[in-house]
Amino acid sequence: MTDSWLPSILRSPLAALIGESCTVTLVDKLDILEPHCLRHALSKGLGLGIVLGGCIVKLPQLFKIVKSKSVAGISLSSYVLEVLANVITIAYNFRNGYAFTTYGEAVFIGFQNFIITLLMLVFTGRASLGAVTGALLLVFTYSLFDISLVGGSLLSTLYGLTIPLVISSRIPQIYTIHKNKYTGQLSAFAVFNYFFGTAARLYTTLVEVDDSLVLLGNVLATIANGVLAAQMLYYWNASAPKDKYRLDTKKNE
Asked: What superkingdom does the record give (predicted)?
């Protein structure tokens, strides 16, 4: 390791994140404008930030649901489709050996989406269906990581299907908001974090992942999340419609 002015307790994790050569260039030599390492470090920093953001992005949504014991304005089908997309995304990236910072948020968001899906079923009187759904998802997840059950070509096909799946997961929610002119229990924090996260993920994908499927998926996800963010702003001060507004997930599917 090159002699560095930065204490090893700080330098070591930085080198683990951006690599030894770029640490030498950017930190030890203070050549902070070197194009390759600057792009690489920015991508790694954004990727780590997105992953950390993914740990908490759905917590406000969870708290709103638990506190209100209501899933008004939230589409069950959106969450089911999103959970499936999360699981496939994790398996595809993991088995292709991509850096965790380029997809890690899917792990944490997927888990939070799964919990929200179960809560939606519980609060609409379908707890038994929630148990079955959980068991089936575990079996499906295991099969994706077992190459003897799901080969590489099949996994690539499934990942390709997540591109329309991600868009499909947003459409019911977009339609629900448009129909009711109200965002209900939908968390603004989650919506805006999703939008900014997918926008930042476009950059990290361009820098670190040479995969057109991953890039296309991120482009379309950014557009779909942008529509939801725009709706959230447009209906920010809207109140629930009188009389007819009694939403549950059955009406929102």
From this structure: Eukaryota
Residues 72-88: pLDDT tens digits? 777 788 788 889 989 99
Task: Please tell me whether the overall predicted TM-score, pTM, comes out greater than 0.85 for this model.
Answer: no
Nearest-angstrom CA–CA distance, 15 and 115: 35
Domain count, the chain: 1
Distances (CA, A) of 218 to 215, 235, 239: 5, 26, 32
Alpha carbon of 200 to those of 12, 46, 86, 231: distances in Å? 25, 7, 18, 20
> Residue 28, CB half-sphere, CA atoms under 13 Å: how many?
16
| Any domain includes 200 | yes
**Angle at 253 (CA atoms; ends 90, 131), nearest 5 degrees:** 60
DSSP letter (8 states) at residue 102: G
**pLDDT, tens digit (0-9, with 9 covering 90-100), for 193-205:** 888 888 888 888 8
